[in-house]
Amino acid sequence: MNAVSSIAPQPITDEEVKAALDVAVAQIRRNLPEFTYSAQNHSSVNNFYPPVANNQWTAGFWPGEIWLAFEHTGDKTFQYAAQIQVQSFLHRIENRIETDHHDMGFLYSPSCIAAWKLVGDEDGRKAALLAADQLIERYQPIGQFIQAWGRKGVAEEYRYIIDCLLNLPLLYWATEQTGDQKYRDIALIHARTTLKNSVRPDDSTYHTFYMDPETGAPVRGATKQGYADDSFWARGQAWGVAGMAFSYRYERIDEYRDTFDRLLAFYLNKLPADMVPYWDMVFSDGDNEPRDTSAASIVACGLLEMADLVGGEAADRYRDLARRMIKSLADHYAVKDPAISNGLVLHGTYSKKSPYNTCRGEGVDECVSWGDYYYMEALTRLSRSWSSYW
Ligand code: GLY
Fold first, then answer.
1. Residue 351 assigned to a binding site
2. Which of 131, 283, 365, 384 has CB 3.0 to 4.6 Å from 290, enough for a Cys bridge?
3. What start and end residues bound the annotated signal peptide (predicted)?
4. What is the CA radius of gyration of the chain?
5. Residue 275, Cα to own-chain centre: how many angstroms?
6. So what's the pLDDT on residue 1?
């Protein structure tokens, strides 16, 4: 497995997309016995995910992969396994097990909204609506944002993070389902707040952003998982790119599209030759730092989402870029031999500790659950006209 390639990738062909999906689906099928009644840890340990309880923010991605495998094959084995997972997600939200944070969209879109959209699973719909109710409880009118983590209203924790843009589709969906505008209104306001504060003048992004709990004024950008407050955490930029595409889908204002292009240009400019970023883009070739393959898949999905929305030459360019990114992952990073890993894509980075950030070091240079999911989603988007779970 060659993690560092100096060769610029070609666009992946349709045949290669199908072959890569077949490889991924075979791996998902092999994983079903271990992970039908268990969740998958957020990241692998020595390239193997351990089974865990359904209590992490990342638990939705594995059922999302199962749904994508179902879509690719039509095999009901995948449907039944994913519906067993839905029961676990319903139990989790009904009992509010580790749900007091903003990651309800990451949890409930690929697991339960997918179940509702694909097979009309009523419990999936019920669970996702309960998750949307939970998410809007974290909305802070003073500052107009959804608070990411921690005790609500406490100054040290009064912040949102750029990743939350991907939690918002759950709220748009909840309005569509219920006719109640409150979910959509909060999503729109939160997206606007992100647009206003999280993009720096050079078109890089802040991971987290603090607001003043008394006045609602913006206070400062910071990081949790990037190298430093002023560095360029690759996945944060990726969430920004994909988040702008989804924001544009739900509200057609030029600022989202323009910001998408600006964040994308910054990201592309920092990529090494093989189009897979180092975990923080302050690093480059020769720094001996790990990659984050998951950022590449997230950006590819953002590109394919925006391509569907805009059409024309811009869409051709976005699709071409996505095909190159996915080709690089499929050729050099995807798992082909189950003896070396039970994941789909190697060389992701969850949280790398630095002297300047506040995360715990975990999942460094490993498979990461959302990296596997978004790789599958990108391949699926390239293989068919896909109706999104988001
Ligand atoms: N949303 C948290 C992360 O990307 O690690």
1. yes
2. 365
3. none
4. 19
5. 18
6. 42
In the chain, count H helices and then E strands.
Answer: 13, 9
Whole-number Å distance between alpha carbons of 97 and 91: 8
Q: Which residues contact 273 (CB under 8 A, 6 or more apart)?
A: 5, 6, 7, 8
Q: Provide mean pLDDT across the span 291-299.
A: 98
Report residue 242 as tokens: 């994909």
What is the identity of the amino acid at 73? T
Q: Which amino acid is at 179?
A: G
Q: Beta-carbon neighbour count of residue 172 at 10 Å?
A: 21
Residue whose CA is at the smallest distance from ligand 1 atom 2: 163
Is residue 174 within 8 Å of 105, Cβ to Cβ? no
Write the DSSP symbol of residue 219: E
Domain architecture of the chain: domains with CATH: 1-18+235-390 (1.50.10.10), 36-137 (no CATH), 139-222 (no CATH)
Burial 52-76 (b: 16+ CB within 10 A, else e): eebebbbbbbbbbbbbbbbbbeeee
Distance (Å) of CA 61 to CA 53, 54, 232, 373: 14, 11, 25, 6
Q: Kindly report the pTM of this predicted structure.
A: 0.97
Q: Ligand 1 centroid vs 163 CA: distance in angstroms? A: 6
